[in-house]
Specification:
heterodimer, A: 474 residues, alpha/beta, 31% helix, globular, B: 203 residues, Aconitase, domain 4, 7-stranded mixed beta sheet
């Protein structure tokens, strides 16, 4: 048999009907994750057509995007102040009830950001196809699952048929050799990758991350890398499963047990890309050369080393790219050639499906222990799930953040997408551990610098953009 | 379920010479708290289109008289990047657009558009420059999906690629959900041969 890539193996295993010259492949979906924002119109479509959800037992819903994260009253109620958001949440409850779809609702101790709870519950497993009406579904690729975001029409397709119409993607290998220096993290790897290949560089491709630096990452770090694959335009990100993957999964609520665990691991070990299999394109980075990264512009590809200076549009040859950079610097109110280190910020946001897991909170707390959030800075710490929140509280991390003067919140997407009232005021600057620095993403007129949890914590303490390497022991 | 087939149409173009227009610009997240698709045209490009007081910014292209009735938007590279929100093509279609021209489109946006009768027309850089210049003058083009061409006023034309199946569906009003449901027996067979990898009902 021809040597195959990890992507090709998963693809082949899920073909209900292969691609032809005139029709796309029909691809089977193992797990469909659903949330309140991109599903209502899909359920309505099923209702109008008198269709059922084909496999409610391969579907699971949660509430995360528009949910409040403010501390809850002692009486156990969870008030949702925004009537439109409240109606959307009620609609999801109704849809799940009517169609028999399991729901981890607000108040459930397993509720959280959909891309945090899938892995946490052991729902996300190697070799699966996973979809969700959310572009950061690429996160689950960290397990060697083919996982990608879909629109609401396709949410309807999967609800009704458990399948998608798909054309085969190209493959891209992003190899990261070497080792990361202290203070440099998974977030810096992926920001460097996007700066290198560009926000459209992965379009049409599934990216597989390989190399020594990737193998050395924990599962949570691999999730951070795969999460932002979409920010390079990639359809999905993948990391081949290995012992790190199996150790993470073992014993999780939905993971296989006993003999079926042994069988599953044996099958998962056959998934990694075969020796001699070819990718359509390979890009190589050297981890040793990486520094903490930060974005200066209005898309995630506008990133640089934190000790670098804001680029000068006059040095950009392509007229389209030049005007894009000029527009971005105008929006950010930054001057070409200025350093970002030492620049005052108003808000620090630690959270999102990119960086809200327990290791992210531990890293930030490590920098902030015994320190105070600088005057004039508001810091929001939003754990990715209720389980992360409980774990953090058990370890006393919440005390570290609270004692520093940060806000300790309930789980949700929060200020990453700013749908729930957590947002920047016009003109405010934030260092944010989330994934998008688009104009207005964190609130109309708000300005976002994307960075790692370590950089966010260092910045919160200093009150100005700071180099995390000064805070960690080599 | 019947879907309106797409026919050739002639329309003025609107120029939006911005690269990497992300779906947060096309429709900001605060407009996603809806449970239907209606009325999203009003929120199209909301942060660029309306001032802090909510009044339309007369300088923004969509608020200018020449945009009225235009069905074709010409924008820069990598249109529709970012979030998977289908609200983006719903908003564009709700405003009245039936085609967007760029050099390339983000994958999910492209997929979503094709399911809503909004044509993502990818052309090469030279053709793009020509169309952008023409759009800036308020020029008209004829978009014909059947021949996959955009015909310019001088009689010249530009071809564009489109997935054969999407083209077939759009031209014949074929509904993809109906198509997939029709694959049912093959899906039954696949499920019989492949045990579930995970069961969510234990939640």
């Amino acid at each position: 048999m021809e040597p195959r890539t990890l992507f090709q193996k998963i693809w082949d295993q899920h073909l209900v009907r292969p691609e032809t010259a005139s029709t796309p492949a029909v691809l089977y979906v193992d797990l469909h994750l659903v949330h309140e924002v991109t599903s209502p119109q899909a359920f309505s479509e099923l209702r109008e057509r008198g269709l059922k959800v084909r496999r409610p037992d391969r579907t699971i819903a949660t509430m995360d995007h528009s949910t409040p994260t403010i501390p809850r009253p002692a009486d156990g109620t969870i008030p949702v102040a925004d009537p439109q958001a409240a109606a959307q949440l009620r609609q999801l409850e109704q849809n799940c009830r009517d169609f028999g779809v399991p729901l981890l609702a607000l108040g459930d101790e397993r509720q959280g950001i959909v891309h945090v709870i899938g892995p946490e519950q052991g729902l996300t497993q190697p070799g699966m196809t996973i979809v969700c009406g959310d572009s950061h579904t690429s996160t689950h690729g960290a397990f060697g699952a083919l996982a990608f975001g879909i629109g609401t029409s396709e949410v309807g397709h999967v609800l009704a048929s458990q399948c998608l119409l798909q054309s085969r993607a190209r493959t891209m290998e992003v190899r990261v050799d070497g080792r990361l220096a202290p203070g440099v993290s998974a977030k810096d790897i992926i920001l460097a990758v996007i700066a290198r290949i560009g926000v459209g560089g992965g379009t049409g491709s599934v990216v597989e991350y390989t190399g020594e630096a990737i193998r050395a990452l924990s599962m949570e770090e691999r999730m951070t890398v795969c999460n932002m694959s979409i920010e390079a335009g990639a359809r999905a990100g993948l990391v081949a499963p290995d012992d790190t993957t199996f150790e993470y999964l073992a014993g999780r609520p939905f993971a296989p047990r006993g003999e079926s665990w042994e069988r599953a691991v044996a099958a998962w070990r056959a998934l990694p890309t075969d020796e001699g299999a070819e990718y359509d394109r390979t890009v190589t980075l050297h981890a040793d050369e990486l520094a903490p990264m930060i974005t200066y512009g209005t898309h995630p590809g506008m990133g640089m080393r934190i000790d670098d200076r804001v680029p000068d549009p006059r040095h950009v040859d392509d007229p389209g790219q030049r005007s894009t950079l000029e527009k971005a610097l105008r929006y950010m109110d930054l001057t070409a050639g200025e350093p970002l280190l030492g620049r005052k910020v108003d808000v620090v946001f630690l959270g999102s499906c990119t960086n809200s897991r327990i290791s992210d909170l531990r890293a930030a707390a490590g920098v902030m222990r015994g320190q105070r959030v600088a005057p004039g800075v508001r810091m929001l710490v939003v754990p990715g799930s209720q389980q992360v929140k409980q774990q953090a509280e058990a370890e006393g991390l919440d005390r570290v953040f609270r004692d520093a003067g940060a806000d300790w919140r309930e789980s949700g997407c929060s200020m990453c997408i700013a749908m729930n009232g957590d947002q920047l005021a016009p003109g405010e600057y934030a260092v944010s551990t989330s994934n998008r620095n688009f104009e207005g993403r964190q609130g109309k007129g708000g300005r976002t610098f994307l960075a790692s949890p370590l950089t966010a914590a260092a910045t919160a303490v200093r009150g100005v953009i700071a180099d995390a390497r000064e805070f960690v022991q080599p | 379920m019947t879907i309106e087939p797409i026919r050739a149409f002639t329309s003025r173009m609107v120029a939006l010479p911005v690269e990497n227009v992300d779906t947060d610009q096309i429709i900001p997240a605060r407009f996603l708290k809806v449970t239907d698709k209606a009325g999203l045209g009003d929120a199209l490009f909301a942060d660029w289109r309306y001032g802090p007081d909510g009044a339309p910014d007369p300088g923004f292209i969509l608020n200018r008289p020449e945009a009225r009735g235009a069905r074709v938007l010409v924008a820069g590279d990598n249109f529709g990047c970012g979030s998977s929100r289908e609200h983006a093509p719903w908003a564009l279609a709700g405003f009245g657009f039936r085609a967007v021209i760029s050099t390339f489109f983000a994958d999910i946006f492209r997929n979503n558009s094709l399911k809503n009768g909004l044509l993502p027309i990818a052309v090469d850089e030279a053709a793009h420059r020509r169309l952008m210049a023409l759009a800036a003058e308020g020029g008209e083009v004829t978009v014909d999906l059947a021949s996959q061409t955009v015909v310019l006023p001088d009689g010249g034309s530009v071809t564009f690629p489109i997935e054969p199946f999407a083209k077939h569906c759009l031209l014949n009003g074929v509904d993809q959900l109906g198509f997939l449901v029709g694959v049912g027996p093959e899906i039954d067979r696949y499920e019989a041969e492949h045990p579930a990898r995970v069961a969510t009902l234990g939640a």
